[in-house]
Structure formats: C-alpha cells, structure tokens
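Model it.
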Amino acid sequence: VQLQASGGGLVQPGESLRLSCTASGFTFRFYDMAWYRQAPGNQRELVATITPGSTNYADSVKGRFTISRINAKATVSLQMDSLKSEDTAVYYCNARGRNDFWGQGTQVTVSS
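Modeled.
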C-alpha cells in the first residue's frame, strides 16, 4: 500500500498550490479520502474529506480549498487558493475504509 503525495512548495501569501496524492495497493474507490496537516508544535488536524456523496472542510480553509478525486486514476487532490501563512504545515493524504492508510506528507510553506 502506498500513498504518494506531491505538489508542496514555497509560495507567497495569496498564491495557490495544488497537492496530489496517488494511491496504489488497495481498491481506491472503496475508500473515503482526506487531507490532514500538521504545523510545528501542533497536533495533526483534518483539512478536508471527500466521500462518495460529499465533501467537508475545516472552517479555517472553507471557501479557499477544494478537495477532489479521480477514481480511475486513484488520485485525490487538494486545490489551495488564497494561501495564508497559517496554512504552513506538512500535508498528509489519508485513506479511510476497511483500513486506515497514510502518505508520507508534503511540505507547504507560505511566506513572504
């Protein structure tokens, strides 16, 4: 089982980034997917989830982030717009279903 996250980087406040996570080793379409993030000194927090019927977002990112998935490509993405310095964190891809799988994380830094 592997969840490979990519797309992180260094951007200025107000800019955008798109994170992607490619899954392998399990039946992707049967799993709910989520993005979490963890800033230094903080607990890991839920950013967004996507199920067959809905998407949900943390209040702190609502209206700025969009989660999506393509089952045929076993990928889940997180479009992040209007980034703020407080969005700086390591972002993790998570698959929830019969089992719980985690990716290795990708660093997002928002700084001027």
